[in-house]
DNA sequence: AATGAATGAGCCTTCATTCAT
DNA sequence: GATGAATGAAGGCTCATTCAT
């Protein structure tokens, strides 16, 4: 029962990601989500309070898992360079493997609607914090000279985000993964990263 | 008459920028634009084919002027560092002085709606091209080592865009202008900018 | 089993009375009845054909019992004054002790929906008939001068009903019982009731 | 323009009265009102905030006018008997000439929905007050012995209301007007009305 | 018998667009 | 050109009823 229920919750969430990716949150009728999920329109309201809540859950469930995963990967690495590489690679590989979710993120990450904004902010701020931690650690380990971690984070996340947007909007895009090393080179230069000498 | 027409055209455009900034393109009724512009709803359809066209004109008129202006400023500078400083400063000062337009840009720059997308792309690609030219020139003048201008542009525009988004969404933001020099330092490091020796 | 069945039937009926009293028949979801009765929604459809049928049964069961009871009480009295007093007292005391049922009656007694109307009419017409019999007997016994029993019944029932409505809608009502004697005085005057001389 | 606007407001109000009379407020789709009024569904929302507001306006506009009219008629009469006759005759003749409004009144006068309730109460309490004033004056002029005007009003209004309900629900009703004198006789008896001696 | 998840018809309301004035 | 009343299509959401378990 519960498994079935869980199954339907996820099916609707997946369908909503595809549906929102198709046309954006406001342009997408709930009936389209139902159609893609293979359930009746009313069924969606058994699992979600309203349409807004579906979008909110997308960020809370999927982005939350992504960040938890990334935190785990980062804890296995020691150097700032390895940390940065992990961030760029995981970010790009996750987006590349979840194209619809990537599209929804690019479309809806910038919501003025306060309720949705609030819900997105949770995972997003955690992601920002995680990037800033990496930079801060680099400074403490003297791999990175004194820098404003906040501005550095804007550069790193902004670059990842812009690359993803380009990839999402391009018809025949380069793979995102092909941008990992060039971008890392830029980040290392920007942060004046020294190789750590033991 | 033509002047009057222009006057009303611009009044509607300014009103639409504020209106879209308030609540986003799809959430904003045409009646709100009319209200802010001080004209009747029907009047808007004398100047614009439909609501979509209003958004399109915002990018074509306002972003177009912004880019033309930036191109002029850039032509007065010689070094890559000066070029980059001009881009960052103009980008931030323009956004800071046109907060509503900044909001609309952040909200609507990532539209999946194909018609709108197409229209945004014009000015945006020109802006991208302009940034890439600066980098290309830097490479040719040997101020910048061999780099992929496309990836470098993603980093530069992505950073500017992300900083603007942060500023737009923050309640009590730092001024954008205060981020000019820190960001420039990062860009110079990323591009391994050498001071040109004559 | 039959006892259990009866038990659940009555539990649903009681729950429905409270539920309909809360928000009115059309405003009340079947789920609310189920919730108050402590049964599943589907269970209700084992005991009642549909939602309408629940309302119909309320009148048939509860109002039916009320009228049967009143008929019994009346048969123990001799004079028209005693009959009238019995009607007023039983009407008010029953309503006062079954506030939710009183509310449902006041709300739904006037239904245009023909099927419900039809079902309410059964008990109601019997009640009307009972009142008219009392008047008719009064005339035959020469306690009451020639009167139209139909109009007199309208006055009596209308007064009782209006008093009940006032009581139901008032926030801090007088007790209904406190209106028994004043109302009786009015009725006696209206019917020009003579004390029966043997 | 304004005349036209007024015309459409009234046309919608009249249509709504008929539509609500057909099936009750909650059972009646807004589309039915629009159909009867000969306007588009959306037009209704140019004149009324929502469906609830239409019902509220019915009571405020139509019942308000009825009461104002009755107050005028009463001021032209001197004796309590004449006052009572005016009330009964106007009540019945108004209902008889506005059958749909009468039905709506009988259906919706007893609303538990608090917002609607509130709006109905205004005119209704004014009507109650008017009846109680007539009784109070009768007492002061010594045409009526000491009585509780509140209970007397319950009897009078309750009788009128019940007679109207009977008439509304009957298939082949007696005319309401035929009940004027029988009911008056009852009222006079109930209030022990003396002919005023000069 | 009892459950409650699932269904889908139906309704209120919004809003882009038109057009008579 | 300018107006704004009118239109009607479209969509989010509720809820009576069913049915597999």
Automatic annotation (TrEMBL), chains A, B, C, D:
Protein name: TetR/AcrR family transcriptional regulator
PANTHER family, sorted: FATTY ACID METABOLISM REGULATOR PROTEIN (PTHR30055:SF195), HTH-TYPE TRANSCRIPTIONAL REGULATOR RUTR (PTHR30055)
Keyword DNA-binding: yes
Pfam families in alphabetical order: TetR_C_4, TetR_N
Keywords: DNA-binding
Domain HTH tetR-type stretches: 6-66
GO molecular function: DNA-binding transcription factor activity; transcription cis-regulatory region binding
Species the sequence originates in: Desulfosporosinus fructosivorans
InterPro entries membership: Homeodomain-like_sf, HTH-type_TetR-like_transc_reg, HTH_TetR, Tet_transcr_reg_TetR-rel_C_sf, Tscrpt_reg_YsiA_C
Top-rank taxon: Bacteria
Residue ranges for the DNA-binding region feature of this UniProt entry: 29-48
């Amino acid at each position: 029962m519960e498994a079935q229920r869980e199954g339907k919750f996820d099916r609707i969430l997946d369908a909503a990601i595809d549906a929102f990716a198709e046309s954006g949150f406001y342009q997408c009728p709930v009936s389209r989500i139902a159609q893609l999920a293979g359930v009746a329109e009313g069924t969606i309201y058994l699992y979600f309070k309203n349409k807004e809540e579906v979008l909110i859950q997308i960020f809370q469930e999927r982005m939350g898992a992504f960040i938890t995963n990334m935190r785990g990967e980062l804890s296995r690495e020691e150097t700032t360079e390895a940390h940065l590489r992990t961030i760029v690679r995981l970010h790009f590989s996750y987006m590349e493997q979840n194209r619809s979710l990537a599209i929804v993120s690019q479309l809806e990450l910038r919501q003025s609607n306060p309720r949705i904004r609030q819900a997105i902010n949770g995972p997003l701020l955690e992601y920002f914090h995680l990037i800033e931690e990496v930079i801060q650690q680099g400074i403490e380990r003297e791999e990175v000279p004194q820098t404003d971690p906040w501005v550095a984070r804007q550069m790193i996340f902004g670059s990842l985000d812009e690359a993803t947007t380009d990839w999402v909007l391009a018809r025949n895009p380069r793979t995102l993964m092909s941008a990992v090393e060039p971008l890392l080179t830029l980040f290392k230069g920007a942060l004046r990263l020294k190789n750590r000498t033991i």
